[in-house]
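[job 0412] stage=fold_complex status=start
inputs:
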Amino acid sequence: MKNLLFGLGLLAIVFASCGDGTPENLDYKTELRIKAVYDGQPLVMFEEYDYEDTELFFSRLDLFMNNIQLNDADGGSIPLSDIEFVDFTENQKTLEDANEGISFTYNIEKPAADLASISFGVGVDAATNTSLPTDYSSDNPLSQTGYYWENWDSFIFMKLQGQYDENADGEFALQFLFHTGTDDQHRTFNLPVTSEFDTEGNAVIELEIDYKKMYEVGSGYYNIAENPVNHSPMNPVPMLMLSNNLSNALTVK
Amino acid sequence: MILLVVWTSSCDDDPPKPMPMGVDLTNITYDPVDYEINPPFGFPIFEVPEDNLITEDGVQLGRHLFYDPILSADSTMSCSSCHLPSGSFTDNKKVSAGIDGIPGKRSSMSLMNVGYFYTGLFWDGRVNTLEEQALLPVEDPIELHDTWQNVEEKLKSHVLYPEMFRKAFGISNSDEITKELAVKAIAQFERILISTGSKYDKVVAGVDGFSDEELLGFDLFFDENTDVPDAECGHCHAPPLFTSGEYFNNGIDSVSDVSKESLLEFLDPGLGAVTLDTLDYGKFRSPTLRNVEFTAPYMHDGRFSTLREVLDHYNSGGHPARNLDQNVKPLGLNEEELQALEAFIKTLSEPEFLNKEEYSNPFN
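[job 0412] stage=fold_complex status=done
writing structure:
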C-alpha cells in the first residue's frame, strides 16, 4: 500500500511539471557555434588549401567579437556577451574539431518573442579601444598583450597568419601575416536567424567565416606574394580589404 | 530513528586523534600584516590567490626558504642557486645543474615580475601557478633531488622555521608544517620581485628621454616608423612585461621539411610535451626582455651567449618549420639598426633591481 501511494505521489510530481512543452522555469540556453571554413569546407589549421595557382595553410586565425546579442521579432534584445575571443588556432586543428567549430553557451531569460537576428561586432568598439590590456583581469580575453599594438593605440581585432607556397614547390617559403585594428576597422553585423528554442529551452545559432572570401578582391583574390605582411595602419589597404570582406565571409547557417 | 541509532552507535568507534608530537607554537603571536604591494603604473592587474595573500611574515619565510639549501638532499643547493639576484634571478648558465652535477636541458628563467605571469610557467608552460612550480624542483632528480617528506621533517625540527611558519600561517604546532605551506611562502616572496624602474619606464612616464640610437631601436622594435624596417619584436615581447606570455617556435632549430610530421624531430619538444600536440613541438614561452642584458645566455637552452647573437638570429629569419611564427622572417636590418635595437633593449634594464635588500639572501 505504501509503495502504491509513493508511486502515485511520484507520478503526480512528474505530471505537474509537464506543461504545454514550453519550459517556464528552466534556464534558456543559446549556443553560439562559430566555424572557420575555407571555400565552404571546414578549415583545419596547418592544412593546405588551394589559393589561385598554388596553396597556402593558416597557422593563426583568431578574432574578437563584441557586444553579441540576440534580437527578437518584437524588437527586443537579449545580450549574450560583451566580448569573446574566437580562437580557431587552438580549436580547429583537426577535421573533427573543424566540423564542430567553437561553441559559446549562454544562459538567458525566456525571450519575449521568436528570434529574429543576432548582432555583434568584429573587434572592439571605439570606447573599449581606449582601454588597455592591463585594465582587465587575466581571465578576460582583452588582457592579452599580444592582441594590443602600442603604436596603433588599438587592440588587434583579427589575426590571419600562415605560409604561402609562392614557388608552388611544396616549401611554403613565404610567411604571410595580416592583423586588423583601429576604430575604423571595427565592423558590426546584424544577421537574420531562423533558429528556434526547443522544448527544453535550447537554441543553436551557427556562424561561419569563410576565410577564402576574406581575400576576395573584385573577381579575383588578393596577391599575397606581392604584399604578404600588413599590420600597419600606415598602409591600411589590406586591412580594410579584410575588414570589409567580413560582410561576405560571415554567414548564419 | 534508524539513522539516529546508527549514528550514535558509531561515535564511540571513531579513532582518537593522535596527539601532536611536534612543538607547541601557540605561545608565539600570530598577527599577519599585509605586505604592501604598490602596483606599478601601467602594469597588469596584480592577482594573488585568495588562499595565499601576501604578508610580511609570509614573504620573510619565503625569502628564507628561497635561499636555504635545506630544500636539497645534501644541503648544497637552494632555489637561489639557479635564480640569483645578480642574474636578475637566473644563474647565467647555459643550462642549470642540480646537486649531483647532472646538467638539465634548459636555462633558468628570470623570476623578475614572475607574479604577473598568468599564462604558464617554465619554458613549456607545464604549470599554472608559482605554488605549483615551487613543488617540482625539490623532488626533481636533476635539481634538488630531495623528497618533500624529508624536507618537511627538516623544517619541523629546525631552530628557526617552526616559529616562522607560525607567524606566516598561524599553525599551532610544528607538525603542521607542510610542503603546501612551504611553497606558498616561496610564492609570496617571488610575487614581490617586481621591476618597473627601467629607463624605458622613465621615458614612458615622461621623466627621461631616449638617445637617438635608442629611439631608432624603439621604432624598429615596435614597427613604429614606416621609414625603418619592422623588427617585429613587439609582437612576442609586448609591453609592459615585454613578453606576451605566449608560446612560439622562433626558428632556432631546423627540421627536415615543413611537414607537420617533421616537427617531431625537435630534440626538445617544449610546449608539445605538455599539450601532446605535434603542432606545439618546438614552441617555448617568450621570456621577458626586462633586464635581459643581465640574463645571458639566451634561449631555452642557453645557446646564444650575447644579445647580438640573438638579434643576428632573428635578422637571418630562422629555420623553416610548419609552425614557425610568421613574425620570424629575414628582417634585412643593417649594422646600425642592429646596434640600435640592442641599445633600445638595454633601456629595459633596471640595475637597481639586482641589488635590492629586500630580495637579497637573508643568511648573508
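[job 0412] summary: The two ends of chain A are 55 Å apart (CA to CA).
[job 0412] exit 0
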